[in-house]
Amino acid sequence: MEGRTASLPEWPIAAVQESDVDLVLLFEIRANPGFRSRLLNYAYHQDFTGHTLVGAWRNTFDSMSGETDVLLVADQPDGTRVALMIEDKIAARLQPRQAERYSERGETGRLNGWWVEFRTLLVAPASYLTFITKLGWTASLPLEEVAAWLEEQKTLHAATGAEILRHAASPRNREMIVNEAATNFWNDYLRYSGEKWPQLEVALPSAGPKGLGSIWPIFGAKTLAQDRRIEIRHKDQSKRVDLVVDFCSEIALKQAVSHLLEDGMSVNRAGKTAVVRIEVPAVHLTEPFQDQIEAIESVFAAGERLLAFCRMHRALLHALPRSDRS
């Protein structure tokens, strides 16, 4: 890249999906007796030292009660065969009766003679487990704790697994994971703006499926297409629409436009930029777009006001002194 030093990716997997977590768990269960014992000890509150692995599988399916992410079957030293049924989550919501359906599959296995006892285990980021009900699961286990177990192994393969699990549990990763509800929301957002607010020239920074992270839609995409210093963004998760002036101090922007500001507008600092801001209602990416039309209308109205403000005072904004610090 001319004028810029290219960098290698920070993570071995850019966006860790639940299927990736399945594979890390399956690999460690099959290859690492100490890790396997620790999982069984955790779920059963018993000492599984000396157990024998019968098998471990990913995505076993029952036509009546659904899918088990990872299934572990082992024999205790006394010959008692037991099962551990693992569901892992990163950001997706629990499905209706998901814990109950896991138990139904476990009971089916017991009645069929596949095992004598079973336990169900929900594995997810600690922040996820804080905000959801864990009723119905035998136990729940933070991904971060599983990663810590692997780090104690002091081996390269275990450290790699731990790195993947820690990335899976990170807020940054959860923002990157494709989410169907969020994708639908942004598709509806773009469609609605084109139908009802074409003058606002709304554009999304990138095409394709979306995650739960903030994407900051652009207003005035055509008007400001060639402008290297000014842009208007809907900072969706911060509940604001900002007219951004790059490399400008808050003091300089206030001195220039304070007497021009309209009701509801304010000047604020945002990193190395200064902004003219309008606060707007929150939008929720996992809730239906049609249920949020009133909030969306407020967002677009704010964007239209800032675009008009920009058109009227663009020369003044461009004349502001550049500053590397805000």
Overall geometry: elongated
What's the Cα radius of gyration? 26 Å
- Mean pLDDT comes to 90
Fraction of helical residues: 25-40%
- Biggest sheet strand line-up: 1-2-3-4-5
Sequence of secondary-structure elements: HHEEEHEHEHHHHEEEHEEH
Work out the strand percent: 15-25%
Enumerate how many helices there are, as a single number.
10
Structural class: alpha+beta
Number of domains: 2
The overall strand count is: 10
Span between termini: 29 Å
Unreliable runs: 1-5
- Sheet having the most strands: 5 strands, mixed
3D architecture notes:
The chain contains ten helices and ten strands. α1 (18-31) packs antiparallel against α6 and α5 (143-151) runs antiparallel to α6 (156-169). The protein folds into two domains: 18-176, no CATH class; 180-318. Strands 1-2-3-4-5 form a five-stranded mixed sheet, sandwiched between helices. Strands 6-7-8-10-9 form a five-stranded antiparallel sheet. It is of the alpha+beta class and 326 residues long.
